[in-house]
Design brief:
Largest sheet: 6 strands, parallel
Number of strands: 18
Strand order of the largest sheet: 15-14-16-17-13-18
Structural class: alpha/beta
CATH topology of the largest domain: BirA Bifunctional Protein, domain 2
CATH architecture of the largest domain: 2-Layer Sandwich
Oligomer: single chain
Helix content: 40-55%
Strand content: 15-25%
Number of domains: 4
Radius of gyration: 27 Å
Amino acid sequence: MAVYILSSKIISRNTGRTVTGAAAYRAGEKILDERMNQTWDFTKKKGIDHTEILAPENAPEWATNRERLWNEVEKSEKRKDSQLAREIQVALPIELTNDQKKNLIKEFAKDNFVTKGMIADICLHDISGENPHAHIMLTMRHITPEGFGKKNFDWNKKENLLGWRENWAKLANDHLALAGHDISIDHRSYEKMGIPLEAQKKIGPLKHMSKEDRAETDRMQEYLETCRRNGEKIKANPEIATDLFSRKQAIFTENDILRLANTYSADKEQFDEVVSAIKNSPDLVLLGAGENGKERYTTRQTLEAENSMLSKSEQMAKAHSHKVKNKYQKQAKVSRTLAPEQVKAFDHILSSGDMCCVVGYAGTGKSYMLDAVREAYEAGGYTVTGAALAGIAAQGLFESSGIPSQTIARRLLDQEQGRSELTKKHVLVIDEAGMVGTRQMNALISHAHEKGAKVILVGDGMQLQPIEAGGAFRGIYSRTEGVNLTEIRRQKEDWQKEATKYFEEGKSKTALDLYELSGKIRQDATHDKSIRQLISEWSNSWKNATPLLH
């Protein structure tokens, strides 16, 4: 189960550390420290799966050479107590594939550090194991084409760290959602989330000690004492554990229970007691075995949220309080070229109750049709707003349909704090609805139902299939009015349309076979060659393109 960990620390000389040694250890490499004339050799270190250096565009070529980079950092600092680098450590979601983990950490490093002028040295450890995590070593000075400039002390501000923590949770949740996981992490403290547990300090470096040494360390003793107190709290009130599960995911397995018990127990005896308390909790609901044969669980809180969500959705579907005059509907339709199927969907949405669902494959013109829906409602005096689980989906909804949108996490936070409440004059469009979990969907619908707003859920056909991540959308669709778009319009060739459907259905190999048969797939010897060829072909096609007439 995905966990939230993001820690930050400074590597400085006054603690006796060298940045070259730290870099060599994180990357499992051999690096010569030119200042000290000492070689750090960690080439035998195991568990290092990927290393990469990301640098701003104006950085010199040597910035991506690990040995040269950190030696230059050492040279740029003259004080005995100089701060040499900042290290960020994050826990990677275990549910993501290795490539997905790499993409996640690279996007996070680029958006939060590299674009600000820092160089990010990324090392991923144990990405296929039980403790996937990443280390990001960051430079403390702005980089120029000539080398390091002045140290930027603004990067040390507390608000930056708070922003990084929040941004990591948002981005990780986006990537989990895009990967089809109904799981989320939360950057807030236990106290702010209302969870009666104590924060447990990390003990990573202690794993290299002997058992005898570990037992004698104050740090280990403090950690075990915190574990024991938390374990006793869960034993006394197992609802704490079921609440933690409900916050993260709708459905979980016995392995998730074991992981949680291991986190909040000090020894084998307490571990067994915590597991027993959770499994005997009246809030735990056994769902039966999944496709992999493993038992699946949910919580009574989740079931209650689901029943509440479905009940309110049915009530909203029967209400018709968001009517728009025919003249505004006609204006919206005649101002663009809608296919007959899109016209049917448009008419259905405008005539449906305060809850309706739109289902369609990618390329069927859902966004184009929703643009017309937005125009009609706005002409009728309504405010149309959008939300999506992933930030990129929210941005896409705005760009394609003109609907101002935000992430669901941001919308829910704004709702809680009274900054963005819906009214009877609002229409809320939730895109990629099949990715939204029960807890979040219930919160959105409950608010809309209370305020009298209309909700339009938008998703694709695969999100109606019996997969865990699409449970909320599937349940609402089955009990309310829905409209389907089936004609793929984005692709013109029949084989392209067929391939698109295969991609949507998860049959990627079959879809790629169609592209290969059509001569649309080419293989190059190296990744770099492919990129260069793509850039070259794009550049040539742009140069040879017919200029637009204005």
